[in-house]
């Protein structure tokens, strides 16, 4: 890789990188090849640069992360200067499950976005953590995501951990990258889904990438990133006809892709109740629920997903810590209404 550094008029430094494809990188997808050649930029950052038109061959922007490169291609990456955009502290109530000098575990409510982003410059978990933890909060994750090592969707409830110093952040990041393959990390979810799988348990191993037409969605796609979800049926619920119409599924993640559980369960024909993004075609099935369950689902107004279990190794003491979270009131009401049909 040959790169030249250019000065930004604002005084911050940007970079113009030039890469010649050798052909022996082992990856032909543009985003993956770049990730292997530019290790200081994350794959998500590289994708954002591609979609923004800042990656090109000659004068032609390459806006498709899946573009297949060829040996001899000379690719330029225009990396803009970093912009400091420190979020402000906001006095947002937090349900703190555990806290010490190194980590904080919270039980996230519905409607709380994890970090600032498009359309959410304030009112996020990061804003709340800055107010709660003050200067101790780790900044290794970047100025807009201090302390954050994993995420939950805005309307997914449950357990999250954040780092309060860089040593803890490094350890937690490594544990989440390993996803419990060799360490103690475990993340468990409870998901209410349409229908009942024809087996008591199973594993979904299906790669996930951006949806080809709807950029705000993810999809199972050949060539996507490895994604593995283990599941088991915990409870079955009958509908008005007396036949099974829904189930409570326990899920554990072996990888951590965006929307992974929602995408995987929809992929096998059992989307989450209340998921308007991945299960819109199942809205008509609400008529098959008993009246109380139908009313509870309408009141829910979100995907029926809860992160109930978190197990990790303490980043300093090495102690294996485990936390569980009861279903929040709205999901508990849905479960009770579904059970009433039995």
Description:
The protein is globular, with a radius of gyration of 22 Å. It is built from seven helices and 16 strands. The chain has helices at 30-37, 43-51, 125-133, 166-178, 260-267, 291-300, 329-339, and strands at 2-7, 13-20, 55-57, 60-61, 74-79, 96-99, 103-108, 157-163, 186-194, 201-205, 208-210, 218-220, 228-238, 244-253, 305-313, 320-324. Strands 6, 7, 8, 9, 10, 13, 14, 15 and 16 form a nine-stranded mixed sheet that branches. Strands 1-2-5-3-4 form a five-stranded antiparallel sheet. Helices cover 20% and strands 28% of the residues. A hairpin with a 2-residue loop joins strand 3 (55-57) and strand 4 (60-61). With 342 residues, it is of the alpha+beta class.
Question: Any key phrases for this structure?
Answer:
alpha+beta; 5-stranded antiparallel β-sheet; 16 strands; disordered N terminus
Please provide a brief summary of the model.
The protein has 342 residues and is α+β, with helices and mostly antiparallel strands. The chain contains seven helices and 16 strands. Strand 1 and strand 2 (13-20) form a beta hairpin.
Could you state the order of secondary-structure elements as H and E?
Answer: EEHHEEEEEHEHEEEEEEHHEEH
Radius of gyration (Å): 22 Å
- Sum up the overall morphology in one term: globular
Q: State the separation between the terminal residues, measured CA to CA.
A: 64 Å
Number of helices: 7
Estimated share of beta-strand residues: 25-35%
Fraction of residues in helices? Answer: 10-25%
Instruction: Count the beta strands.
Output: 16
| Overall pLDDT confidence | 87
Helical/strand content category: alpha+beta
